[in-house]
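Example record for the data management plan.
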Amino acid sequence: MKSHDPNWTKRSGITILEVLIVLAIIAMIAAVVGPRLIGYLGRAKSETASLQIDQIGNALQLFYIDTGRYPTDSEGLSVLVNAPPGDSSWQGPYLDSEDGLTDPWNRSYIYAEPGDNQRPNVSSLGRDGQSGGDGEDKDLEL
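Corresponding structural encoding:
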């Protein structure tokens, strides 16, 4: 049997310079694309929070229709998933699970019962968890 003996020369294969050029091109592409992807992720979290707040608002309206009242501050939003003790008019659950009561930044939504003839307030403090802010740090509310 004959084995095939390739003719290797000094120019065979890839040089280190060619590898470095390819790595530099990949690094430049990552530098341009990376920040945009992070921006999309942040915007997606804000949009998710806004949609969840709207869903909680709808669940609060259903709770109001069934019980004739909004939850109290002490009951909080958990009454949308678990029946309050002694309330026979509760027809829930109004949300699938308590996971919907947590914003995309893993903090509970803030609930404030309404005053006279007002709607309840549901809000999230955004990414930074503090009042105010712009972009991802912007407060979101119903």
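Summary line stored alongside the record: Strands lie at 110-112, 121-124, 140-141.
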